[in-house]
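USER: Please consider what follows.
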Amino acid sequence: MNTTASTALWEIRKAVKPWLEDTSETILFGCSGGADSMAMALALFIEANGVKVIPVVVDHGLQNGSAEITAQTVAKLKKIGYTQIESAVAQVTLTDGLEASARRARYQIFNQFIDTYRAKYFLLAHTLNDQAENVLLGLARGSGARSLAAMAVENNKFIRPLLKISRATTEFACEESGVGYWSDPHNEDLKYSRVRVRKNVLPNLESNLGPGITEALVRSADLLRDDADALDGFAVEFFNQVDPINLSVKDLERLPKAIRTRVLRLAIYKAGAPQGMLTADHISSAEALISDWHGQKELSLPGNVKLLRNSGRIILSTGI
């Protein structure tokens, strides 16, 4: 294996190095065996410099031969030089699509290993291309700024150091270094919307609007994340000063709509709605109690949360 510093590998090494400064705590990272995670595995091994770095390989059990692919990935990691490698079989329950269900099962395993090792960080190998694809998928869903902001580099213990690095760079780093990687056949299957974006939509945009679309989408995500963070901050500041189950309509009317909807979302979750269950339609109906009031009846929301406008107040309660 050639570990001499190519431009591609050096770029990845620079991206992971800031997350390896504390030698006293364990760092975990997810490794699927694909080019992105294998390139990151190589960069982490070179840059570890006394830091305990442990790969985590997840077998989703969704394809024939998945156990063999996991074993091959572990073997490739050993060839790089890793001596401690964790692997686990995910229990994927298909509920809201294959990708989302697999992701939920995968993160359950990731969180279990974070708890086991008391890890400081868990690194993920999402790239610039993944980020651009997420922005387009968010646009197709009609999502708001938070969704269009796509993935953050740092999200609690989960770190994505390669978000400014292209998929082509990770592939080139592997090929130059002699590191083998697995190509997931799901990444070629056009029945998945993400693959259609990757194979059809982005190349079409590049062809018709010129090169640099991927980078432009990522810049847009960065700008939208800054905006979303600011709006979320204003909403939390207001929310922390009021009774979350008894809100003044006049106070809410004075807020810009972008902040008002965030306050309502916070209040509904505080009242007991399950996290992640509120849709844009739910929030729109709740906001209409302020901006489009014409005597609407009580609004029923996930988690048996009820919203009622009464005597100039928005009253939240949990139904029985």
In short: Residues 89 and 191 are 25 Å apart (CA to CA). The mean pLDDT is 92. Strands lie at 27-30, 53-59, 86-89, 121-123, 154-155, 158-159, 246-248, 299-301, 305-310, 313-318.
